């Protein structure tokens, strides 16, 4: 309990505002001096600001309250790359402000008082401006920015919940709570649809309120931030990771499923169950590896120890035996890394999972722990870093996988995991994950559904030993092969699909290393100009790379509603049915074995032969799964997959271009370029296979000028070395083509004549109903409220806190019933339900009896009520559903008091659901 209290106290210290009465500001500008691309601003208070232009689109503002620039706790830990060469920035005195200019930006230093504003180089397109001077107390510094009418915000690390942050207040702080709307790996970084990003250069906790104005605070008496201007969100991520480091490239086996557990339970120091069967000494893990291979189940690595007294025995022998079965070995530590040199260099361990018991203090402590793990792997082997951590920070993307902490295998936890992991990429965290089906609880159904969609993220892992109590033969622990049917077969299907997609997934991860753009992408990254994709209406789905749209099922249902398909054509991966967006797809049939999965028009997806682990079979044939429509391309990335030789250029790329009709019937040409570059193990030749979606059989198929034979059926095709076969029943029509063996250094073309691009079915509809955020709400009117003897302000009814209440006046005379409250929702909605929560403080007076609810665009003409009724005289919440009505204002009239105790009304919370309206 003391730990809980301490954590709550720490969190409150981050969330609660500082006293503005004690805040100081810099005052007025008294002059600006320069030294190269560094500009120093003197002020009337003695404070000073330093502007460092690192690149034409990247700069730093450092504000020192005492005028000295010696207090720099972050140093080069976060901003590791800042030497981009001379910029030659200009300085101009424009009267009321100084202007620092580059070919990309115009930074205004307003003189009276000192505030900053950033424009594009045209000096008229505003990116951000300070609404008031940055202020500081002895312990906190806050910047205030104006907010544009439609500006949206993203970032703050691995936030456990929705990724669109407008109107939200987000703690950028370590709490280790691992519940919705906390931050598992906070990052002092965010970016805006206005075209900029910012990283506070600090180890101190903070809080970002994306309100109007935004309020951006950290718990230190200094201000230090790096700014990144860009023409797109992807551009901003590229600039941010140019400074803080690009996402690391995991070993290719790290993209396979991993599992962590204690297999040394006989150790007297172990804090868990000493009698676990098949978990008595570390080599017992080999039995689980044997089970996996016997079940034909893809999986790639084990962490056969978990600290907490477990430890390990016979580690070198275990590593050798696991490697013989296609598994890599890592260790999960709760105590530190004192033995990592031997564990990596001699025993052959290749991964580390840092535990909260060791690095749970977060900030620089956690950052240094991760760096120690990275160094332990890379200084003692030629292997790549593969470290998992909680409590990451800005820059963690260059060192580690972040995961969501100790969560439970529930539908509700799965619901917020989807936006959490997709949203982490908006802070350049390419490898973000959550334990499949959580670490606690779970069920066969939740496991299957969770594994389905996480198979489309780069890195994922199961955590066994904390799951079901009293496990049965059908659900023993978290390994996917220890389930009864049909669950085991469904698990196998999705793990096999991930293995086939490995060249696509690996290429997406290399793209992240090159550009900072993650493999798992919130919809806004791919569709930044789509107003639906910009917000949380699409937070329940994501893009896996640039080709797959994944819409997880996160409740116990066989129907998925509310799938948003942006503009363009989308093919159902399983059936081949084509949908044309933009619009909403409801009623999608999604039985337990079906993940709603769509492929973007023009997609070019490389696939390996089926295998259970990387290297099990040679990639004798590379298959390209193609959705021909218009022009499109894909550049395959390959290297040895395990060493760091790629950093010195040991890798290869091969581009594939596709030209096809935009609609109707015509020729489709696939141009395969020569593979450029070399690496150890690169094949000199391989076969190529192409699966092209078409609503009709081709006229002819050629490789170069050679006409391929048409084969009579699937069996003949499978037996042939070259040729083609059209399967009308395969996903609404697929042309299969084999070229035979081709040198990887040889370019060639495949041309199929008279293929028909599917016409597709238009989707439409409206956004699904969802909770309306209270962040934009305000009380328009309340006829009575008690403020003399208690805090019964009407605003308490919409503050998101069940512990506070609106109570009508009772001291010094009470107003007669009926009472009412009118709420401004902040925007227009199609409202379809209101939930009323009575007071939760143990009191009973003021509980509402009979009521009326109204929705309107006017507070002077409400019209007829949308719902009437009577609430029970209990403390339970009641949801009132009604036919959706459009309006900006909500009105609740309390006609009677439930227990007839007096002329009072009280409410703990009012919430509503609906969808944005025009």
Per-chain topology:
Elements: H1 2-15, E1 29-35, E2 38-43, E3 48-55, E4 58-64, E5 90-93, E6 97-101, E7 105-110, E8 115-120, E9 126-136, E10 141-145, E11 153-159, E12 169-172, E13 183-192, E14 196-200, E15 206-209, E16 214-218, E17 223-229, H2 233-244, E18 258-260, H3 285-294, E19 301-303, H4 315-324, E20 328-329, E21 331-333, H5 340-345, E22 352-354, H6 356-359, H7 363-378, E23 387-389, E24 401-403, H8 411-424, E25 432-433, H9 444-454, E26 461-463, H10 487-500, H11 502-515, E27 520-521, H12 523-526, E28 542-544, E29 548-550, E30 559-560, E31 563-572, E32 578-585, E33 588-589, E34 597-600, E35 604-607, E36 621-626, E37 631-638, E38 652-659, E39 664-672, E40 685-693, E41 701-703, E42 706-707, H13 714-719, E43 723-727, E44 734-743, E45 748-757, E46 761-762, E47 770-771, E48 778-782, E49 806-807, E50 819-837, E51 850-856, E52 867-870, E53 878-894, E54 906-907, E55 909-916
Parallel strand pairs: 18-19, 18-26, 19-20, 21-22, 22-23, 23-24, 24-25, 32-46, 36-40
Antiparallel strand pairs: 1-2, 2-3, 3-4, 4-17, 5-6, 6-7, 7-8, 8-9, 9-10, 10-16, 11-13, 12-15, 13-14, 14-17, 15-16, 27-28, 28-29, 29-34, 30-33, 31-32, 31-34, 35-36, 37-38, 38-39, 39-45, 40-44, 41-42, 41-45, 43-44, 47-55, 48-50, 49-54, 50-53, 50-55, 51-52, 51-53
Helix pairs in contact: 9-10
Tell me about this structure.
The protein is α+β, with helices and mostly antiparallel strands. A hairpin with a 4-residue loop joins β38 and β39 (664-672). It contains 13 helices and 55 strands. α9 packs parallel to α10. The protein has a nine-stranded antiparallel sheet, covered by helices on one side. An eight-stranded antiparallel sheet has the order 1-2-3-4-17-14-13-11. It starts with a helix and ends with a strand.
């Amino acid at each position: 309990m003391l730990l809980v209290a301490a954590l709550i106290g720490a969190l409150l210290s981050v969330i609660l505002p500082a006293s503005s009465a004690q805040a100081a500001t810099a005052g007025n500008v008294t002059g600006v001096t320069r030294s190269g691309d560094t500009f120093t601003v003197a002020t009337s208070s003695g404070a000073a600001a330093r502007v460092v232009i690192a690149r034409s689109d990247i700069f730093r503002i450092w504000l020192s309250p005492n005028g000295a620039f010696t207090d720099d706790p972050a140093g080069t830990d976060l901003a590791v790359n800042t030497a981009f060469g001379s910029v030659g920035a200009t300085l101009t005195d424009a009267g009321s402000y100084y202007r620092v200019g580059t070919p990309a930006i115009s930074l205004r230093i307003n003189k009276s008082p000192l505030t900053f504003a950033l424009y594009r180089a045209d000096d008229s397109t505003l990116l951000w401006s300070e609404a008031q001077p940055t202020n500081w107390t002895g312990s906190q510094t806050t910047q205030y920015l104006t907010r544009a009418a439609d500006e949206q915000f993203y970032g703050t690390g691995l936030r456990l919940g929705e990724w669109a942050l407008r109107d939200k207040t987000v703690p950028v702080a370590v709490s280790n709570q691992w519940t919705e709307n906390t931050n598992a790996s906070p990052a002092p970084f965010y970016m805006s649809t206005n075209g900029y990003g910012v990283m506070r250069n600090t180890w101190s906790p903070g809080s970002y309120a994306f309100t109007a104005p935004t309020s951006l605070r950290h718990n230190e008496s200094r201000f230090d931030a790096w700014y990144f201007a860009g023409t797109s969100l992807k551009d901003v991520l590229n600039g941010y990771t140019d400074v803080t480091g690009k996402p690391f490239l995991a070993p290719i086996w790290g993209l396979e499923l991993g599992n962590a557990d204690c297999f040394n339970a006989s150790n007297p120091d172990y804090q868990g169950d000493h009698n676990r069967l098949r978990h008595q000494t570390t080599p017992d893990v080999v039995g689980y590896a044997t089970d996996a291979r016997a079940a034909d189940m893809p999986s790639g690595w084990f962490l056969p120890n978990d600290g907490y007294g477990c430890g390990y025995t016979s580690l070198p022998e275990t590593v050798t035996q696991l490697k013989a079965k296609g598994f890599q070995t890592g260790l999960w530590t709760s105590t530190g890394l004192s033995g990592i040199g031997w564990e990596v260099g001699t025993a052959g361990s290749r991964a580390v999972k840092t535990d909260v018991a060791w690095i749970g203090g977060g900030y620089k402590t956690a950052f240094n722990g991760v760096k120690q793990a990275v160094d332990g792997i890379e200084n003692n082997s030629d292997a790549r870093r593969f470290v998992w951590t909680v409590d990451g920070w800005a820059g963690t993307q260059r060192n580690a996988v972040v995961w969501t902490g100790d969560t439970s295998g529930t539908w509700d936890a799965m619901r917020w995991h989807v936006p959490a992991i997709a949203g982490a990429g908006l802070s350049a965290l390419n490898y973000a994950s959550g334990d499949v089906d959580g670490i606690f609880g779970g069920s066969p159904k939740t496991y299957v559904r969770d594994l389905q969609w996480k198979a489309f993220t780069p890195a994922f892992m199961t955590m066994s030993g904390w799951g079901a109590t009293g496990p049965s033969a059908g659900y023993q622990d978290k390994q996917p092969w220890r389930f009864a049917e049909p669950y085991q077969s469904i698990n196998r299907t999705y793990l096999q699909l991930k293995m086939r997609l490995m060249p696509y997934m690996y290429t997406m991860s290399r793209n992240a290393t090159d550009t900072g753009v993650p493999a798992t992408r919130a919809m806004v990254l791919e569709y930044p100009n789509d107003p639906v994709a910009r917000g949380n209406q699409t937070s329940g789905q994501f893009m896996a790379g640039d080709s797959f749209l994944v819409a997880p099922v996160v409740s116990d249902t066989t129907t998925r509603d509310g799938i948003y398909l942006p503009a363009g054509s989308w093919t159902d991966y399983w059936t081949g049915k084509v949908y044309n967006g933009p619009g909403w797809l409801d009623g999608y049939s999604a039985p337990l074995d079906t993940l709603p999965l769509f492929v973007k028009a023009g997609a070019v997806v490389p696939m390996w032969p089926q295998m259970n682990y990387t290297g099990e079979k040679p990639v004798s044939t590379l298959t390209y799964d193609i959705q021909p429509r218009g022009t499109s391309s894909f550049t395959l990335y390959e290297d040895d997959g395990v060493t760091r030789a790629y950093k010195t250029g040991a890798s290869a790329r091969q581009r594939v271009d596709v030209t096809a009709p935009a609609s109707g019937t015509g020729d489709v040409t696939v141009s395969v370029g020569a593979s450029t570059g070399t690496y150890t193990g690169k094949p000199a030749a391989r076969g190529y296979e192409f699966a092209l979606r078409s609503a009709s059989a081709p006229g002819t198929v050629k490789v170069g000028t050679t006409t391929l034979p048409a084969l009579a059926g699937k069996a003949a095709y499978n037996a042939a070395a070259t040729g083609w076969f059209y399967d009308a029943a395969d996903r609404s029509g697929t042309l299969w083509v084999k070229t035979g063996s081709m040198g990887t250094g040889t370019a060639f073309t495949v041309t199929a004549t008279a293929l028909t691009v599917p016409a597709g079915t238009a989707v439409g509809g409206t956004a699904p109903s969802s909770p309306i955020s209270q962040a934009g709400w305000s009380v328009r009117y309340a006829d009575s409220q008690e403020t003399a003897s208690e805090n019964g302000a009407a605003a308490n009814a919409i503050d998101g806190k069940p512990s506070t209440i609106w109570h009508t006046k009772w001291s010094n005379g009470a107003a007669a019933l009926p009472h009412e409250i009118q709420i401004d929702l902040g925007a227009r909605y199609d409202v379809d339900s209101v939930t009323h929560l009575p007071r939760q403080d143990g009191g009973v007076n003021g509980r509402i009896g009979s009521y009326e609810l109204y929705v309107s665009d006017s507070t002077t003409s409400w019209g007829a009520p949308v719902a009437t009724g009577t609430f029970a005289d209990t403390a339970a919440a009641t949801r009132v559903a009604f036919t959706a009505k459009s309006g900006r204002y909500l009105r609740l009239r309390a006609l009677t008091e439930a227990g007839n105790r007096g002329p009072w009304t009280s409410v703990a919370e009012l919430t509503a659901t609906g969808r944005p309206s025009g």
